[in-house]
Amino acid sequence: MSTSPLSVILEGSPYLLIPLAILAVAVGLWYYRRTNPALPVFLRTILTILRVSALLLSIFLIFHLSFSFVRKVQRLPELAIIIDNSASVSSSKDLITKAILNTKNLDQLGKSFGLRFFSFSDTLSEIQEKQLDSLAFDGSATDIHSALTNIGSVIDPSEGRILLLSDGAYNQGANPVRAPEKCPVPIYTVALGDSTPPQDLTVSRIEVNPVVYFKDEIPLTVEIQGFPDAMTAVSLEDEKGLVIARKTVDFRSGGMSKPVSFSFTPDSVGTRIYTLQLTPSEKESSIDNNTRHFSLKVLESRIKVLLVSSAPSPDLAFLKRILQKNDNIELTDLTEKTPGRFYRTSALPQPSNFDVIILLDYPASDSDRQFTGQLISAINSGTATVIFPRNSFDHRLLQPLQHLLPCVFSAKSPEIAVKLAPESDIPPLINFFPTNIAWESLPPVTARKGWLKFRSESTVLLRLDNGDTAIAYSHLAGSKIIALAVYDLWKLSLQDAEHSSGDSLITNFWQSAMRWLAIRQEEDLFLIRTDKTIYSAGENIQFQARLYDENYRLVEEAQLNLDIETPAGNIPLQFKLFSGGGYQASLRLFQTGNYRYQGLAVIGGDTLKTSGELMVESFNPEFIDPVMKPEVLRGIGAASGGNFYFFQDFGKFLDDNKSTPISEEVEHKVDFFPELWALLALIAVLSAEWIIRKRKGLL
């Protein structure tokens, strides 16, 4: 460690400080050259020193005089140790704590690095070294990509390194091999677990439409994962435990995974929960995953959608293609030819007879006022709507709906090419977009900057890459309305097969949006929802809450509490406000069963209550494929400039990663007189001078 010479720092010109200091000394000497009455020389000297000191302290306070020097110090580079805390590596708990992260190895690493510890399953959190022995290894999801991406923002990008301990078996988030693109440090991976699949039976996949229709025959496909020589039967049961259908699954003929198809007919509307039950096998290692549940939203009829457009356009053709290929949507499209006249129709339908109305660039300035009035009346009565403006849209004709719209309109600006980007705080209840979208590779779409200005109480679904809102919705007075600030969305489907995520993105959005819009619910002032009905044990459960006043405006200054009824007693939670315009709370439940929750909102002197139910099942997706994936971990290490090791070779990581301390210069600033002490000293000096003068009777 070395130190540089001192340098003087002051707030002001040194050419002014020096003359003022000389003047202060001169004034002190002149003031006490003689006194009345006359004083001995030593008293005049003391008074002179006190007066000069007071003047100099005042100058130091004004100029904030301080000294600066630079010290060269050494520090160790950071090593972030990230531990997979999911259930699939539970068998490796002792291996992690006793063989890899034992005291001897940590001491050796601590000589070369500053150690930080993190654990993750579906989320990442920092832990202390003393918490290593208490890791539960019970997470119900593994999101390696998010863990590496998030840690890249908290570790030193110039000298930091990452040590990832995982089996590489991810079941949530993007492909982790792409994580090094957003993680600017080398990643060293250590493979845990076993390459031999366990002898377990489980329903690994369920394929069924989550929104179906009453008395329709519903196709259901499930995938049963097993092991050699196993044989089981899978039963489909209703909410009363009655068996709807049963099929035998035989793994003795080979194969580790078998698809099984069922068909059944819902006998009532509403949310229905069904059970898939596997009979145990004698050689099965665990029966915890032999039961799966799934829920269906059963509607009375198909979604009736009215698509009204002011003129033919690429977006119209694109949107019709998406909606017409969905068997659950009954589409009626009207394209205006002249005011009041539409292509291919003589009699206009009644808008109030539809579940969803899509206004594609409609109404235009010359659109039929009578039909526009019928549309406005239906929307005011609660018909869900999508506002999709293009070039001819005249927002003035929708003025009667302004209190319901998530946006206001201003003067049009020139067209600009923009790219789409995900909204970071999108509520999971209305997450209409598929995962694993490569947003940066999407082609640009079109917008008019500043044309649509979204209200603060609207909920953002999608943004532009410049941060502006692309799509948002409002849910006021019983009306669901989605507004789009972009158009030419047909361009997203122009990618080739290798880059088809754009078509998947926009198709999934429209299909999901139609289902969400069509489900009419009574608009309560206080709402609490979860993103699904059935959770795995240990899965993170997100609760979303919204609170409205009597005018259906969002209330953001209230105390919201949640009470979960469990067999062990009630669990209290407190909601926190989040930027999407609502409240959020979360927890994990590990005991299986049905849970009831009750929400309480206190605003002023009013108290509102709401309640709901959810189910936690024993199924854990971590056990669907709990096999070491060395190819994933090897890819992460290679892409980041790090390396890959099997857990048996952890000693090689210790040998390969020796580092030397990093020298850096740290500037230190020391006040000549800290302001507080300088002020106290000034008061003391002036007090001492006054006391002497008072006692000697000086004028």
Architecture overview:
- With 699 residues, this protein is α+β, with helices and mostly antiparallel strands.
- It folds into 5 domains: 2-71 and 668-696, no CATH class; 79-102 and 113-194 and 640-650, Rossmann fold (3-Layer(aba) Sandwich); 202-299, Immunoglobulins (Immunoglobulin-like, Sandwich); 303-518, Rossmann fold (3-Layer(aba) Sandwich), CATH 3.40.50.880; 526-622, Macroglobulin (MG2) domain (Immunoglobulin-like, Sandwich).
- The protein is 21% helix and 35% strand.
- It has a 9-stranded mixed β-sheet with strand order 19-18-17-20-21-29-28-27-24, sandwiched between helices. It has a 6-stranded mixed β-sheet with strand order 6-5-4-7-8-40.
- Helix 1 (14-31) packs antiparallel against helix 2.
- The protein is globular and about 115 Å long.
- The two termini are 57 Å apart.
- The model has no long low-confidence stretch (mean pLDDT 86).
What's the helix and strand layout?
Elements: E1 2-3, E2 7-9, H1 14-31, H2 41-63, E3 66-75, E4 78-84, H3 93-100, H4 103-112, E5 114-120, E6 124-127, H5 144-151, E7 161-166, E8 187-191, E9 202-207, E10 211-213, E11 218-225, E12 231-237, E13 243-250, E14 257-264, E15 270-278, E16 291-299, E17 303-309, H6 314-324, E18 329-338, E19 341-342, E20 356-360, H7 369-380, E21 384-388, E22 407-409, E23 415-418, E24 420-422, E25 445-448, E26 452-454, E27 459-464, E28 469-476, E29 479-484, E30 486-487, H8 501-518, E31 526-530, E32 534-536, E33 540-547, E34 559-566, E35 569-574, E36 576-578, E37 582-588, E38 593-603, E39 606-617, H9 630-640, E40 643-646, H10 650-656, E41 662-671, H11 675-696
Parallel strand pairs: 4-5, 4-7, 7-8, 8-40, 10-16, 17-18, 17-20, 20-21, 21-29, 32-39
Antiparallel strand pairs: 1-3, 2-3, 3-41, 5-6, 9-11, 11-14, 12-13, 12-15, 15-16, 18-19, 22-26, 23-25, 24-27, 25-30, 27-28, 28-29, 31-33, 33-37, 34-35, 34-38, 36-37, 38-39
